[in-house]
Amino acid sequence: MTTIDIGPACPPDHKHAAAGTCYNQHGCRCRDCTTTRATTQRARRREKAYGRYQPLHLPARGAQRRLQALIRQGWSQKKLARELGIPASRVYQLLVEERITRAWHDRIDQLFGRLWDKVPAHTEHRDLIAYNRTIRYAASRGWARPLEWDDIDNDDAPVRRDRTRSGIDETAVELAVAGTRVHLTISERREAVRILHGYGLTDPDMAKRLELSDRTILRIRLHELHLPANDSPHNSQPAAPAAA
Q1: Among 1, 31, 49, 66, which residue has the least CB neighbours within 10 Å?
Q2: What separation, in Å, do the N-terminal and C-terminal C-alpha atoms of the chain show?
Q3: For residue 36, what pLDDT is reported?
Q4: Is the pLDDT of residue 65 over 80?
Q5: What is d(CA 136, CA 145) in angstroms, rounded to the nearest whole number?
Q6: Which stretch, 120-129, 178-187, 203-212, 234-243, has highest mean pLDDT?
Q7: What are the b/e assignments for 213-233, b being 16+ CB within 10 Å?
Q8: Lowest mean pLDDT among 104-108, 118-122, 124-128, 239-243
Q9: What is the pLDDT of residue 243?
Q10: In this structure, what DSSP letter does residue 118 have?
Q11: What DSSP string describes 13-36?
Q12: Could you tell me the pTM of the whole model?
């Protein structure tokens, strides 16, 4: 029987016929690659006919929104990389790619399901700086928190819930706590002082962070919040302005 040569064979390092790479990208038309291609196409048509087809690659928007929301919660790209077991550079790539594999989408969805209602530890000085820096980085880009999404994959925009029933703009407070100059209402100043006091900052440190006078901080802390003074400035350094 005569054998017909229908194209070049794959080089050994092309994972011959193991995936569509050889056929689609390397142009290989050997018998095994064309057979694999035909089998894959038939299976795809059958799954589409039964309504069960799921593409291998998806738009990255849903996965990126999940990562952005976690960053908005204070999870830095380094911490997310550690949770995913990947280099931090890969997290950055996932944030800018237009399409990702379904496997990556599912992996990020699982991470989001585990962390969406949690924040990373930030009581220690270094962790506090990273936490504040990460929130400021995300807020400056307009990234939404997890709870601001009703349908994170399909909604055109998040449902903003920045102002609470008490009239406090949580984003403004978070930015101020992170060391960003922002206008605060009286209630928001009080909330910012309450948060910074919980971090262990002294009155002068809070005054410097919020760009208020020491007397104003004393009045808010002592007479409005009835909080004792923090004597130990263990978390007194302001967050440095840098990307997460």
Answers
A1: 1
A2: 65
A3: 75
A4: yes
A5: 13
A6: 203-212
A7: eeeebeebbeeeeeeeebeee
A8: 239-243
A9: 41
A10: -
A11: GG-TTTSSHHHHTS----HHHHHH
A12: 0.56
DSSP label of 169: B
> What amino acid is encoded at 76 in this protein?
S
Nearest to 144 by CA among 131, 157, 156, 133: 157
Which pLDDT does position 48 carry in this prediction? Answer: 61
Q: How far apart are CA 229 and CA 220, in angstroms?
A: 11
Query: What's the pLDDT score for residue 77?
Result: 95
Q: Which two tokens stand for residue 94?
A: 């996932």
CA distance 19 to 33: 8
- CB neighbour burial string for 54-69, b if at least 16 within 10 angstroms, e if fewer: eeeebebebbbbbbbb
Sign of torsion, CA 84 86 91 93? negative
Q: Provide the residue type at 176 as one letter.
A: A
